[in-house]
Design goal:
alpha+beta
Length: 171
């Protein structure tokens, strides 16, 4: 395996909290055999099917969130309190309490085995943005979703944050 191939994959992983998909690795020249060799040598791990992490990269809440969204192949996004923390809304620190990882997905067929709180509901491409390399619901969608899981005063604080920051709440 040429070092340049691992270097390109390593750069992609570094820009995504130490994680990348097998598909991304393949596009960068790492075939299944090379990935299996890296796993056997302890250079990468596979915390979810199809998602690799660089061993030695810090295991952070953002890495867990990145792995969870990558494992869903683009059909889920960080949502609810996780998205609020990613957007840095007032009242939502990072990581959220108990390191909560929340996803929003249109269905739950791809998510078994992930250590996440999964919410299902309509999710269109217009509802999704990328924040720090992680798929997240938009601010408007996040604010609406928070209303179903948080007390009114907490949601009000998040809305006030959006208003003070001049965020458009149009959908």
């Amino acid at each position: 395996m040429p070092a340049a191939d691992w270097g390109a994959a390593g750069e992609v992983a570094a820009s995504r909290h130490g994680a990348l998909t097998r598909t991304q690795a393949g596009l960068l020249g790492l075939g299944p055999h090379a990935i299996d060799t890296l796993r056997r040598r302890g250079h990468v791990a596979e915390p979810a099917p199809g998602v690799l992490t660089v061993v030695g990269a810090p295991v952070t809440w953002r890495q867990r969130l990145a792995v969870a969204t990558m494992a869903c192949n683009g059909s889920a996004a960080a949502g609810f309190r996780s998205a609020a923390a990613m957007h840095r809304m007032d009242g939502y620190g990072e990581p959220p309490p108990r390191g909560l990882v929340e996803l929003l997905a249109a269905d739950n067929r791809h998510y078994r085995g992930l250590d996440v709180v999964l919410h299902t509901g309509p999710l269109s491409p217009e509802d999704v943005v990328v924040v720090d390399g992680i798929l997240c619901t938009t601010i408007a969608r996040t604010l609406c979703d928070l209303g179903s899981v948080e007390p009114v005063h907490q949601v009000r604080e998040a809305f006030e944050w959006a208003w003070r920051n001049g965020v458009s709440l149009t959908w």
